[in-house]
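Tokens for chain A. Residues wanted.
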């Protein structure tokens, strides 16, 4: 009997149990013509279930031992890439056609991976959706609405580019070894932003700046960013039609877009 792979703490590995891998494949709803990229296949619980149902499956795994273990039983339509997904050329892959994303993300790098996917979508397109397993608290931040404690930079920047829906919630026992937290599977359906932005980088910079002071009034939270661009925060807020006594966490994406345009 082949030994089960050992999860490595330094990679934040928690391997999905077979019954939950079946549920995740059902939630993904793969089609025979689909091309997929899987982030962190681990020992292949999802890989080996998904591959027979799709045209191509590219996997990116940082752990060389897991890649070696998968090589012996991966189907011919699976491409195994040893490396860090944060360094992977996703734009090169989508040149051949759309690529759906799936992955059980390590908790310690889930946010950088989310921002990489957003950046790749912005630059190259070709990513219809991403079905991602995340720590439940991270999922809650992405789903959060204006005025709630979880609403912030991650909520705004992810939902600027994608519709978000929750597919599954998983207990710690869905993984081996069991983490100390619950997990959730979100589906991100990538699309153009629902607002018009002349300078998206300035928008992102403003959002990050004002949310470092999310409990201050907008008049004060906006001031450092506005002054750095030669603009008065009170004038910009008035021009955008936003009450300067509100707090950053109460603004929706449309209000933030208007404000960014006035400052820029």
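Reply:
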């Amino acid at each position: 009997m082949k030994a089960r792979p050992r999860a490595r703490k330094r990679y934040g590995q928690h391997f999905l149990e077979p019954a939950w891998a079946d549920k995740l494949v059902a939630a993904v709803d793969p089609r025979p013509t689909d091309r997929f990229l899987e982030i962190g296949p681990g020992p292949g619980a999802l890989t080996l279930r998904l591959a027979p149902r799709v045209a191509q499956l590219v996997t990116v795994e940082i752990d060389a031992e897991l890649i070696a273990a998968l090589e012996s039983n991966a189907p011919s339509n699976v491409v195994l890439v040893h490396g860090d997904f944060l360094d992977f050329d996703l734009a090169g892959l989508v040149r051949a056609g759309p690529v759906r994303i799936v992955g059980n993300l390590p908790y310690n790098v889930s946010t950088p991976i989310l921002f990489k996917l957003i950046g790749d979508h912005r630059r190259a397109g070709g990513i219809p959706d991403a079905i991602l397993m995340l720590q439940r608290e991270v999922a809650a931040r992405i789903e959060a609405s204006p005025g709630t404690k979880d609403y912030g930079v991650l909520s705004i920047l992810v939902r600027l580019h994608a519709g978000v829906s929750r597919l599954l919630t998983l207990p710690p026992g869905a993984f081996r070894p069991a983490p100390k937290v619950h997990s959730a599977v979100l589906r991100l359906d990538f699309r153009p932003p629902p607002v018009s932005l002349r300078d998206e980088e300035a928008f992102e910079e403003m959002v990050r700046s004002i949310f470092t002071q999310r409990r201050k009034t907008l008049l004060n939270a906006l001031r450092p960013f506005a002054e750095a661009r030669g603009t008065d925060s009170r004038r910009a807020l008035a021009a955008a039609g936003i009450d300067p006594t509100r707090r950053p966490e109460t603004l929706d994406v449309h209000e933030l877009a208007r404000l960014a345009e006035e400052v820029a």
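The chain has two domains: 9-190, 200-263. The domain at 9-190 is CATH 3.40.50.150 (Rossmann fold).
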